[in-house]
Amino acid sequence: MLGFFVSATNLVMNLGVLSMTWQPSMDWATAVAKSKVLASIRNFFVSRDVVEVETPLLCHGTVTDVHLEAFKAEYLSSVNDKETLYLQTSPEFAMKRLLASGYQSIYQMCKAFRDEPQGRFHNPEFTMLEWYRLGFSMHDLIAEVDSFLQDILHTKPAGLISYQQTFIDKTGIDPLSTSINACISFISEKGKLSPWLEEETSLDTLLQFIFCEFIESKIGLEAPVFVHSFPASQASLAILDTNDMRVAKRFECYFKGIELANGFEELIDAKTQLSRFALDNSVRAANSLEQKNIDEKFISALEEGLPQCAGVALGVDRLLMLALDKPHIEQVVSFTTKDT
Q1: pLDDT by residue (tens digit) across 160-205?
Q2: Which of residues 113 and 78 earns the better pLDDT score?
Q3: What is the C-alpha separation between 261 and 318, in angstroms, rounded?
Q4: Within its chain, how far is the Cα of 300 from the centroid?
Q5: Phi and psi of 222, rounded to 5°?
Q6: Is 323 helix (H, G, I), strand (E, B) or coil?
Q7: What sign for the dihedral angle of Cα 155, 160, 162, 168?
Q8: Across residues 15-25, what is the average pLDDT?
Q9: Could you give the 3-state DSSP secondary structure of residue 227?
C-alpha cells in the first residue's frame, strides 16, 4: 500500500512539473503584433500582383545538400507497403514545378522542417517565406528584398558586397584562391581550431565556418547587407555567372547578426541540376552520410522548361524577432519543438 502512495505521489509531482510546460512560449501581445506583421507581408505581395500558393509539406524526394537534413515520415500507401516521405526543408522544388506548368510570379508562407539543433535562431519546425519572380535577375530580386525589408522592418537601404570582397575585408582571405591549409591556419591563429576542423577536407565547409564565426556578426549592423556572388562550388540551385565562372548568382541577406534570406538567379538546366544532386550524394557517401532520394518530379519539371526567374527564401521567425525586438525565436512561435 505504501508503494502505491509513493507512486501516486511521484505521478502527481511529475504532472506538476509537466503542468509548468504546457503554456505557449509566445505571449498574447506578441501574437497580436505578429499577426499584423504577417498581414503586412501579404499586403506587400498583393501590391505587386504576386500570387500566394500552397504546396505539400510531405514529399517523396528531398534535398541532397550535405549540410541539410530532412525529417522522415513513413506512409502506408497500401495494406502491405510503406513509403518513405520527407518533410520539406523548403517549398522550392514544388513551387518550381508550378512555375514550369505555367504559373506566374508566386509566393508562399509555410512551415518548413530541418533536422538541426534548436537554438536562439532556429526551431526544427519554422516558418518560411519563399517567392519567385519571372524575368528577374539576381540584382532585380535583391532590390525587391531590400524594398520588402524597408517596408516590413523600416530599415535603411541595404548595402551590397560580393562574397569575395567581404572575406578579404574581414579576414584577409580571398575565398576564390585560398586553400584548405590557409583556412586551417587562419582558424588556428584565431584560437578556434578543433579536431573536426583539423580533419576537414572540404574547403567550402571551412569557408562557411569562417564566415559564420568571423564575418556574420560584423556585417549588416546598421542596415541590411546583401552578400552576393558565392563561389561556384556553393551554387546549389543558382546559375553560374558567365562573366566570372568562379562564382554563382547567389546571394544572402544579413541584418543585425542574423542571416535572413538566401536567394538565387535560378538554374533552369535539368542536366546540370541533376549532376549537382549526384555530386552531393557522392560527397555524402564519402562522408558516411545517407544518400538522399532525388526529387524526380522536380527534375522532370526542369526538363519540361522552367522560365528564367529568381527566387528567395526568407526566415519569417527571424524576421519577426527583428520586427518585434525579441532576442529568442521561442518568443515569436506558439510552441517550440521541445515544448510540443
Answers
A1: 999 999 999 999 999 999 999 999 999 999 999 999 999 999 999 9
A2: 113
A3: 10
A4: 24
A5: -100, -30
A6: helix
A7: negative
A8: 70
A9: strand
> Average per-residue pLDDT in the chain?
94
- Distance in angstroms (rounded) separating the CA atoms of residues 129 and 232: 25
- Mean pLDDT computed over 65-83: 88
Report how far Cα 52 is from the mean position of its chain's Cα atoms. 20
**What nine digits make up the cell of 190?**
584565431
Please say whether the beta carbons of 330 and 336 come within 8 A.
yes
β partners of residue 87:
58
Cell, residue 44:
506587400
pLDDT of residue 7: 56
303: how many CB neighbours lie within 10 A of its CB? 14
- Rounded Cα–Cα distance for residues 173 and 192 (Å): 16
Whether pTM > 0.90 for this model: the answer is yes
Give the Cα separation of 186 and 91 in Å (integer): 37
Q: Nearest-CA neighbor of 188 among 167, 168, 206, 205?
A: 206
5, pLDDT greater than 70: no
3-class SS at 155?
A: coil
pLDDT of 75 higher than 80: yes
Q: CA-to-CA distance for 101 and 298, rounded, in angstroms?
A: 11
- Read off the pLDDT band of 96 (50, 70, 90): very high
Burial 45-84 (b: 16+ CB within 10 A, else e): beeeebeebebebebebbbbbbebbbbeeeeeeeeeeeee
Quote the cell numbers at residue 86. Answer: 520527407
Beta strands across the sheet bearing 225-228: 51-52, 106-113, 125-134, 309-315, 258-265, 250-255, 225-228, 159-162
Going by C-alpha positions, the residue among 105, 21, 34 that lies closest to residue 316 is: 34
Torsion region of 92: left, alpha or beta (phi above 0 gives left; psi -120 to 50 gives alpha): alpha
C-alpha cell recorded at residue 56: 505539400
Residue 184 pLDDT: 97
Q: Give the CA count within 13 Å in the CB-facing half-sphere of 259.
A: 15
The whole-angstrom separation of Cα 262 and Cα 253 is 7
